[in-house]
Task: structure prediction
Amino acid sequence: MSALETRTDAQAAIAAATRPRRWGFWYVAEHRFRVMRSYTGTVVVAGIGSPVLYLYALGVGLATIVDASGTTIGGVSYLVFVAPALLASAGITAATEEFSYPVFLGYKWNPTFTGIHSSPITPHQIVDGVIVSVVVRLTVNMVLFYLLMLVFGAVPSATGFLAILAGLLGGLAFGTMLMSYTSTLEDDTGQIAMVMRFIVLPMTLFSGTFFPLAQFPLWLQWIGWISPLWHSTELARVATYGYAEPVWLTAVHVLVLVGLAVFGWVLSRRIAVRRLEK
Amino acid sequence: MPEPVIVARDLVKTYGELSAVDGISFEVAAGESFGLLGPNGAGKSTTMRMVGAVSTRTSGELSILGLDPDGSGPEIRSQLGVVPQADNLDTELRVRENLLVYGRYFGLPRRQVAARADELLAFAQLEDKGKAKVDALSGGMKRRLTIARALINDPRILLLDEPTTGLDPQARHVLWDRLFRLKEQGTTLLLTRHYMDEAEQLCDRLVVVDKGVIMAEGTPAELIRRYSTREVLEVRFGSDRNAAVAEQLHGIGERVEVLPDRILVYTDSGEADLVRITEAGLRPVTSLVRRSSLEDVFLRLTGRSLIE
Result:
């Protein structure tokens, strides 16, 4: 009788865990969406406002000087050249927002991850859920950006919409690596701000965003080669205006970005297990 | 005796050189309220985390509801409610939202979670706070919300790690009242305390833990009977005189314990001993006769006070 009771307990537990085992990552994403809802305003205003500002200032304003000098970059106007880079850069910025403080917060300041882990959800599912939620947010950002590029007439090529994917990949490649870093932080004594200042900002300057990477001497170009932003920018350019580069190089961009994203993802999962199950 | 829902045998957890839990064994029956009493750092929280299937044991056996936490973590956690030592509510969400998102983690349908959330807000006396921000709640309210959250899945076992620490007496009273109700409903409770107060009445059985090992096990009454006297006479002579006066108390009570701020005389009749002390010409600054508590049991077992 008593053995039967125990078996029933165990069976009840097994039945109750079936859905969380399968859908746990999605429940975490739902939680994140609810939190994001509290700053939907910021996401939308920034998601529309900042592309408009940048596209106007650089693609229209600065472009008058660049185009007037009669030089074109690869035969396209400056707006067409800079717009896909701005999209890629916006992807990285949004990913940085989501994978820095919110992750550190979940582990440390307001340890919601510990709370979530007390339920049937596993550390892997927490990481997966956070990433899935950011994929959704990034997609919204990238689609908005792309639509505004259309409005500005910055997309001559029919394959332009693929730039959305390029921006998404770039954001994930940088974002998951950043997540694995912020997951290890025990205290924030300015490390996250340093990342913004000394990694994100220089990356934007040295990734062929505002002018081609080839303008730099070779000894500085390596920054671009290892920068997810450069790979994402180049991919977006191929998509929006058929930027001419060897097919193998396009493949390299995709491989580097996917590789970094997967690496950062796996690393973040491992750190989550180590940190939450110690 | 029903089959135990928690079985721990020689449970060990080491962090590098440090052993936080050093061979703990206990069983908890369904519907029982079981306490882990001990000072901070005794290994209670680590034990709770292992029972809560969020920390892997270094060695020993552990079975929760007939399942091994190694490999069946999600299954076990689906049947648990956990009230951690420090609240980890999501302060970016509103009060009711905290319950809504948490219920989903157990795979419960939205409608069911919403209904349950309202019931629990009532249970936690937070009906009119549903839309409030978590940070706007008082400490006691946050604690109640954490307990409400832990109950969202109607758990078989509720784990409470220092549930009333840092609460004012009134908030504690409300909290204990809620815990007694859960006990009446047949929920198995496992709780840790470093201070025994009301828990003495709530726990059917408890173990005294110190330095990662179990010092004693029994019902609160049993432990007091076994390790202490019926009454305790507390006398204070001023911190500089206590030790000297204690020398002169030989033969009074069964045992005398000197603490920095007071002397404890373990006796079956505190009043009678107090008379003997004053008759001996010793004039305590203050005196108090009280019943023995688990605090005294702990002092006897370890030579140390629970709260230091």
In short: Chain A touches chain B through 40 residues (CB under 8 Å). DSSP finds eleven helices and no strands in chain A. The mean pLDDT of chain A is 91. The CA atoms of residues 173 and 259 of chain A lie 8 Å apart.
